[in-house]
Amino acid sequence: SAKEEDVEDAKMVMIDECLEYNQKVLMADGTYKKIGDLVKEKSNEKVMSYNHEINIFEPKKIINHSKTPIKQNNKKLMRITIKDSNNQLKTITCTDNHKIWIEELQEYIEAKKIKLNYSMLMKNSNIGKVVNIEYINFDENMEVYDIEIEDNHNFICEDILVHNCHHIASNTFVSTLNLCKNAYYRIGVSA
Question: What's the predicted TM-score (pTM) here?
Answer without folding.
Answer: 0.79
